[in-house]
């Protein structure tokens, strides 16, 4: 026998019935995004490597070691392109917005869903292909939009039945303020250089802010005693931060200020935030985001402010499971029992009419040997979870009818056995079924 093929490490199949949970979540997101007037954007999975190097920053985990990058095949002139499978989608959105000049008539609110790729060590809540849902508001400068995005995420948690989360916020100020903070931060860290781990020492001068969000417990004391960004914020940055807090407070959204919250990516300024839970072990951040007012310009676009977040779909679904939220799995409304192959042409027409009328019907499929015994067909009908069995028996079909048997749910008196329905009115029977539901 040929050797079995398997999926790539850290990349998962999403199978039924679990995939129904994904669809359920995606439906909720689409509906909610619509209510906040965010529109869907879909950018390619492959982009030029340079997009991420410039967009995310050279001294980041992602660009340093997590990207799936490759040289494309050369064209006739021997020229080839360096491509990367997107590790996140903000850079792609900014590229698309700039390339198509989407901000020419004002701000844009956008959302996306899809797979991202990072070569990390696979573990619970951390995969090499994972999925993000993200929302980006481009062209808006005020804290009102930062708040809108956070309220949108909070509304999503509510719709998903999630309450075991907390919101952490921080402000990274503006570049000039950050530069001052950075100088004092480096001085502080240098003073305690003996306590820094290897990665921190390497990042001391290239990306010291990132050291604050270390996961190394041995460095806890050093980072906790480090100078805090908040003390370097000027009046405008403080006003922005206070504006955000006032809106959150007015909406009853509890927040805590986390001075060490800097986010993994380089491009943030002013507001940064994360939704965190303690129920998923080490991978407790379900959603993170912030303002990135300088990214669009840095990527060659006309300067425009922007803010956004991305949530990890796997982690959110894991949390839904942890909380025991029931997600209804799909079952067909009806199962079509077809005793003999001779009934196929007529039965198929009736099924088409039913499905057109919005009824979901699972057809019993035959084989070269025939259709299978009535007993086995009924067993399958029961197993499908359908409420009704439709029996396309030869005698009924000749009388222009189909037998309907109620398998579960409320049974009317007549339905203890089975009820005959005229075939040509099967769609109106279906309509009645819909209106009961
Ligand atoms: P972490 O600190 O957990 O590595 P991050 O800062 O790298 O997260 P972002 O780049 O902000 O994460 O991505 C937003 C969200 O996407 C995260 O909060 C998380 O929920 C999810 N996420 C990020 N990386 C992965 C991954 N490898 N597998 C599954 N989900 C992920
Ligand atoms: Mg990461």
Please, could you describe this protein's structure?
The chain has 437 residues and is α+β, with helices and mostly antiparallel strands. The chain folds into two domains: 247 residues, Bira Bifunctional Protein, Domain 2 (BirA Bifunctional Protein, domain 2, 2-Layer Sandwich), CATH 3.30.930; 103 residues, 3-Layer(aba) Sandwich (Rossmann fold), CATH 3.40.50. The protein has 16 helices and 16 strands. It has an eight-stranded mixed sheet with strand order 1-5-6-11-10-9-7-8. A five-stranded mixed sheet has the order 13-12-14-15-16, sandwiched between helices. A three-stranded antiparallel sheet has the order 2-4-3. The chain is elongated. Bound molecules: adenosine-5'-triphosphate and magnesium ion (MG).
């Amino acid at each position: 026998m040929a050797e079995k093929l398997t999926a790539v490490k850290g990349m998962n199949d999403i199978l039924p019935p679990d995939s129904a949970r994904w669809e359920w979540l995606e439906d909720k997101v689409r509906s909610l995004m619509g209510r906040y007037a965010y529109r869907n954007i879909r950018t390619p999975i492959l982009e030029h490597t340079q997009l991420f190097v410039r967009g995310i920053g050279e001294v980041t985990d992602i660009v340093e070691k997590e990207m799936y990058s490759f040289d494309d095949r050369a064209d006739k002139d021997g020229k080839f392109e360096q491509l990367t499978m997107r590790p996140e989608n903000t850079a792609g959105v900014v590229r698309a917005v700039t390339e198509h000049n989407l901000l020419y008539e004002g701000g844009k609110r956008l959302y996306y869903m899809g797979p991202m790729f990072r070569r990390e060590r696979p573990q619970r809540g951390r995969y090499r292909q994972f999925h993000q849902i993200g929302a980006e508001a481009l062209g808006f400068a005020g804290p009102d939009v930062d708040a809108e995005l956070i309220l949108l995420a909070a509304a999503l948690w509510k719709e998903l039945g999630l309450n075991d989360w907390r919101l952490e916020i921080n402000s990274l100020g503006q570049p000039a303020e950050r530069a001052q903070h950075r100088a004092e931060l480096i001085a502080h860290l240098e003073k305690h250089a003996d306590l820094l781990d290897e990665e921190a020492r390497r990042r001391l001068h290239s990306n010291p802010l990132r050291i604050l969000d270390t996961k190394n417990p041995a460095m806890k004391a050093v980072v906790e005693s480090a100078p805090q960004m908040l003390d370097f914020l000027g009046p405008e940055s403080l006003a922005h931060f206070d504006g955000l807090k006032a809106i959150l407070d007015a909406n009853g959204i509890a927040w805590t200020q986390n001075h060490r919250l800097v986010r993994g990516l380089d491009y943030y300024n002013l507001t940064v935030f994360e939704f965190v839970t303690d129920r998923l072990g080490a991978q407790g951040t379900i959603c993170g985001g912030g303002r990135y007012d300088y990214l669009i310009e840095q990527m060659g676009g006309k300067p425009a402010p922007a803010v956004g977040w991305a949530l990890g779909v796997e982690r959110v679904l894991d949390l839904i499971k942890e909380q025991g939220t029931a997600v209804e799995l799909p079952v067909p409304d009806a199962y079509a029992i077809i005793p003999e192959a001779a009934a196929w042409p007529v039965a198929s027409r009736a099924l088409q009419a039913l499905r057109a009328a919005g009824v979901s019907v699972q057809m019993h499929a035959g084989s070269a040997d025939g259709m299978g015994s009535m007993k086995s067909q009924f067993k399958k009908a029961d197993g499908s979870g359908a409420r009704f069995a439709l029996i396309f028996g030869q005698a009924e079909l000749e009388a222009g009818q189909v037998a309907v048997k109620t398998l579960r749910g409320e049974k009317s008196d007549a339905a203890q056995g089975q009820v005959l329905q005229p075939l040509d009115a099967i769609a109106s029977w279906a309509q009645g079924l819909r209106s009961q539901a």
